[in-house]
Specification:
The chain is mostly helical. It is built from 13 helices and no strands. It has helices spanning about 5-25, 30-50, 55-80, 85-120, 125-135, 140-150, 155-185, 190-205, 205-215, 220-240, 245-255, 265-285, 295-315. It starts with a helix and ends in a 17-residue tail after the last helix.
Length: about 325
C-alpha cells in the first residue's frame, strides 16, 4: 500500500471517529473536544498494539492537524477583533494576572516535591519550568468550547478568551526562555523576531489592508488570509512560543482591519473540518504505558494543583473597573 493511500485511509478513519466521539460527548452534555481527546487516547492504545504508521504519513497527519488548529484560532481572533476594545482588554488583565501568579506559586511548590524524582538537570531549572508550565492555559481547548457553546460573542466569553491569550503569551514566553537557557542560552534573535511580529501585526491592523482585501477576488482573499495565518503561527513557533498564539494574534490584526470581508467566514470551513483531528492526535500522544502507582499519584497531584490554580487564580484577583458589577441606583422616594 502506498503512503498516499494509507494517509487518505487513516485520515478518513480519524475524521469519522473524531466526529462520532465529539457527537457522543455532546449528547452526554460534555464539550465535543473532550470526546475527541478521549478518542485519541483509545486510538493511541490501539496503535501501540498494532503496526506503526510510516514516518511520512504521521508527519503529514500532524501537519494537517496543525493547519486545522491554525485556521480555527485565526478565525476566532478575527471574529473577536471588532469587540476587543481597549476597555475590554484592560478588563481581562486582572483575571489574567491572577491566572498567572497563583498557578506559578502553586506550581513552584509542587515542583519542589516532584524534583526528587524528575529533576535530572537540577532543581532550579525544573522548578522554573514547572511553574511556568502551570500558568499555561489550554487556549485551543477553551476557544473550541466557547465556539461550540456560542459564547464567542458573549462578554464573559470574550473576557475569558482575552485573559487566556494574555496568560498563554506570557507563560509560553517564560517557558521558551527557561528551555533556551538550559540548552543554548537565551536567544536574543527569538526576542527580536517576536518584536518584529508585533510590529507587523500593528501594520496589518491598519485600514489599508481592509481596503486592499475588499478589492480582491474572493479566491485571492482566501489564499492571502490562509497565508497570513500560517505565517503568524510559524513565526511564534520559530520564536519558541506556541503556534496557536501567532495564529490568534494574526486573526485579531486582520479582523480589526478587514472585518467587512468577514475573514472568519471565508476561512472557517477548512479549520472546522480539520481541528477535530488535532485534538484526536493530542490524545493519541499520551503515553499510558509507563504509569505506575507512584506516577499516578503524582499525576493526580499535578491535575489537582492545575485545577486549583486556574479556578482560584482569576476568581481571587481583585475586580478591575471593567469587571466590577454596577449597582442599580435607588430611585428617590
Amino acid at each position: 500500500m502506498s503512503d498516499l493511500t494509507l494517509l487518505l485511509a487513516v485520515l478518513a478513519v480519524l475524521l469519522s471517529l473524531a466526529r462520532a466521539s465529539g457527537s457522543a460527548a455532546a449528547r452526554l452534555g460534555q464539550p465535543a473536544v473532550i470526546g475527541e481527546i478521549a478518542c485519541g487516547l483509545l486510538v493511541g492504545v490501539a496503535m501501540d498494539t498494532g503496526p506503526e504508521l510510516p514516518g511520512r504519513v504521521g508527519t503529514t497527519l500532524d501537519a494537517l492537524a496543525q493547519l486545522g488548529l491554525t485556521l480555527f484560532l485565526f478565525c476566532v481572533g478575527a471574529r473577536l477583533a471588532p469587540s476587543m476594545t481597549e476597555r475590554r482588554v484592560r478588563a481581562a488583565l486582572v483575571p489574567a494576572l491572577g491566572a498567572i501568579v497563583v498557578p506559578v506559586v502553586l506550581g513552584a511548590l509542587l515542583a519542589l516535591w516532584l524534583a526528587r524524582r524528575h529533576a535530572p538537570a537540577g532543581v532550579t531549572p525544573f522548578v522554573l519550568f514547572a511553574a511556568a508550565a502551570m500558568a499555561v492555559t489550554a487556549f485551543p481547548v477553551l476557544a473550541r468550547i466557547l465556539a461550540e457553546r456560542d459564547m464567542l460573542d458573549d462578554a464573559g466569553g470574550q473576557r475569558a478568551l482575552s485573559a487566556a491569550a494574555i496568560t498563554d503569551a506570557a507563560a509560553w514566553t517564560a517557558l521558551a526562555f527557561v528551555a533556551a537557557s538550559l540548552h543554548e542560552g537565551i536567544r536574543l534573535w527569538s526576542l527580536a523576531l517576536t518584536v518584529a511580529l508585533l510590529v507587523a501585526l500593528c501594520r496589518l491592523a491598519r485600514p489599508w489592508f481592509g481596503r486592499l482585501a475588499a478589492r480582491l477576488p474572493r479566491q485571492t482573499t482566501v489564499a492571502i488570509l490562509v497565508s497570513l495565518a500560517c505565517a503568524g503561527a510559524a513565526t511564534t513557533e520559530l520564536a519558541g512560543l506556541h503556534s496557536a498564539v501567532g495564529a490568534f494574534l494574526t486573526g485579531v490584526a486582520v479582523g480589526r482591519s478587514a472585518h467587512r470581508i468577514e475573514p472568519a467566514t471565508l476561512v472557517a470551513p477548512v479549520g472546522a473540518l480539520l481541528v477535530p483531528l488535532y485534538f484526536v492526535l493530542v490524545g493519541r500522544r499520551v503515553d499510558l504505558g509507563g504509569l505506575d502507582l507512584l506516577l499516578v499519584a503524582e499525576t493526580a497531584a499535578v491535575i489537582a494543583v492545575a485545577v486549583a490554580g486556574k479556578c482560584g487564580g482569576p476568581t481571587s484577583a481583585p475586580a478591575s473597573p471593567g469587571n466590577r458589577p454596577t449597582r442599580p441606583r435607588s430611585s428617590p422616594p
